Amino acid sequence: QEIISGESEEESNGVNLMEFSDEILLHILSYVPCTDLVLNVRRTCRKLATLCLDKSLTHTVLLQKDYKVNKDKVKQLMRDIGKEIYQLNMAGCYWLPSSTIDHVTRCKNLVKLNLSGCHVTSLRLSKMLSTLQHLRSLAIDVNPGFDASQLSSECKATLSRVSELKQTLYTPSYGVVPCCTSLEKLLLYFEILDRSREGFMLSGQLMVGESNVPHYQNLRIFYARLAPGYVNQEVVRLYLAVLSDRTPENLHAFLISAPGSFAETGATKNLLDSMARNVRLDALQLPKAWINGSGLLQHLKFNNPFYFSFSRCTLSGGHLIQRVINGGKDLKSLTSLNLSGCVHCLAPESLFRKAEDDIDSSILESLVVSCCNLRHLNLSAAHHHSSESIGNHLCQLLSRLKHLLSLALPVCSITDVAANVEKPPTASNLVPQTFGRKVRIGIQTYPRNLADQANQKIESSVFWALMGSLRFLETLEIIGSSFSSAMPRNEPAIRNSLPPCVRAQSVGDSEVAAISQLTYLQSLTLAQLPNILTGSGLINIGLQCQHLRTLSLANLGMMGKVVYMSALMDMLKHCKCLRDLRLEQPYFCAGAQFFQALSHCSSLQRLCIVSRSGTLQSDAVMSFMANCLEVIMCHMFMGESLTVCKNLQQSIVRSFQADRPALNVVIFPLLHEDLTEVIRDVPMRHLDEITLFKSRVAEEPPNLWW
């Protein structure tokens, strides 16, 4: 054997980063935010100075979640590499002043620009777009005060070449749509409130000078998402009126997401009839009133569909198989399917069926066989009860979908039917889910060790087998079919919640532990699991799911007490990659022990707690904010007084705003009458992604925008 000297051994063990090939270094540098590369890393040595300016790193600049970026950094970045940037994403940079947009004019070669969530006036937009002659893709907000007449002829010339437009409307307006005469993709987000801050009712009629007609002749993708409110419905009808006159021949994706009731009119019926005659679609989503009771699906033609959403429709499984799946033909291309709230979609007919009746497993089997390449599937907000037939449980059939990346299921659908039939109700099942007088009961001792739990129940569980078969699942939502958040949008807080489904009464700690098999899990939502006794399964998830970035827990276990607090604190100590945490639980105590455990989540950026009658310790919150330097969003809607909430909010802002430019703090009593006024000031990025509870699986077609 060769004897290696101490010196040579030290050299062999040492790793010099600069000795790696340029290709490897470029790959490593691609994970570093562009602002750090250009403003910091490239100043370290000559080699990195060259590599940091490589086209592969400067071609696309993403600032949308770079919460540390400020106006000065953006200015310096544009000055250094502005001419090298072809794609710039500043979506959701709400904290940057509007003057920051002026520096985008240095990016003369921009092809794609996303400014959604940024403060942009009509004049600034005009000045900026006048210099961007190569722009083909644009995303902007249209706020009150927007005036299309202020757009210069050079700006309109740029807009005439734009083929992709994403427009978020906060006021009734066509925005820049009439100027975009070459549109192929149009995404519209309607966020117009029915009332002004002063309490006046708003109208859906467009402002004077807004009568220009949009140009849809080249349109291939039309997408509209409406927030609740009648004004949004009025305005979207104006956009659709032009489509009803002449349907674009190349239209292949038509999607309208509208909550509540959105009635069909003569104009929309003409539009749908024209689509049935003239186009073949690849993606479809319509308001439930446009589908329910109509034969529309029978007449629409599809090419190679990749996305369907029938959310909240009364579509039966029989119609789904006959009119959409078409016996399994041409459905291998389908990658995303949203059947959320579609209560009869797994039953042969809906006329005499109760929502709680067992599903027809043959329909689900046909769906699984026909759509074998599904990557995103949403079956939440419905009672999908499996029968006692062996091998036909919903979980067993879904385990065949090996390509799934995201999945949303109702709690009652994962129940092991045989276990429910054989096992009599336990004391924990009989505890009323109310806020009344506490009942002292004996609690079964649940082991904290995963192996012990597996020996007790999980080995024979159909849900355990499903989790084991979906090893590459990244997003999982298990939501009670009757769950509703205590904080809906544009309405007062909900004070009463519906009881969980009877079939869901046995779902608890062992099912949660089964989720820990998902090694690559990044996002987890658990809501209304009534049989959580200790929360021990959460610890297993914290230990095994090391890629977890988003965690949302709501109404777990008994409603009168947070029974899983100890397990949650143990779990958080292992969640080093966790960035977003949302907790919704009555009587939640956000005290020193909780925040001390949460401080172990070194990557945490956003925290939201919604708790009726919940309490908090101000000193603990301040200490947590001081220790977790990455936190830029803190939303707490609790049971504390308005004075306590305001004082804490002001203290956090005063102490940390200077070092965290993106800091957004909202601490407010959950049941206060002014809650809706407070909510309307929350940046849309936070409101849509974490503060408001909703199912997000297959909510939109994959890769709809950046």
Descriptive notes:
It is a single chain. This protein is of the alpha/beta class and 706 residues long. The chain has a domain of 230 residues: Leucine-rich repeat, LRR (right-handed beta-alpha superhelix) (Alpha-Beta Horseshoe), CATH 3.80.10. It contains 27 helices and 22 strands. It has a 20-stranded parallel beta sheet, sandwiched between helices. Helix 10 links the parallel strand 8 and strand 9. Helix 21 runs parallel beside helix 22, helix 22 packs parallel to helix 23 and helix 24 packs parallel to helix 25. It starts with 5 loop residues before the first helix and ends in a 15-residue tail after the last helix. The N terminus is likely disordered. It comes from Oceanodroma tethys.
Can you lay out the helices and strands and say which pair or pack?
Layout lengths: L5 H8 L8 H8 L4 H6 L6 H6 L3 H4 L1 E3 L8 H11 L5 E3 L22 E3 L7 H8 L7 E6 L10 H8 L3 E6 L15 E6 L30 E6 L3 H16 L7 E5 L8 H13 L1 E6 L2 H4 L4 H4 L1 E9 L7 H9 L10 E3 L22 H10 L5 E3 L15 H5 L7 E5 L6 H6 L4 H4 L19 H7 L5 H8 L5 E5 L29 H6 L8 E7 L6 H9 L5 E7 L8 H8 L7 E5 L4 E2 L1 H7 L7 E5 L4 E2 L1 H10 L5 E6 L3 H15 L7 E6 L5 H5 L4 H8 L15
Parallel strand pairs: 1-2, 2-3, 3-4, 4-5, 5-6, 6-7, 7-8, 8-9, 9-10, 10-11, 11-12, 12-13, 13-14, 14-15, 15-16, 16-17, 17-19, 18-20, 19-21, 21-22
Please state the overall shape, judged from the principal axes of the Cα atoms.
globular
Number of strands: 22
**Alpha-beta classification:** alpha/beta
Q: What would CATH call the homologous superfamily of the domain at 408-414 and 462-490 and 497-690?
A: Ribonuclease Inhibitor
Cα end-to-end separation: 57 Å
Low-pLDDT stretches are 1-11, 421-448
Protein name: FXL18 protein
Pfam family, one: LRR_FBXL18
Organism: Oceanodroma tethys
Domain F-box: 14-61
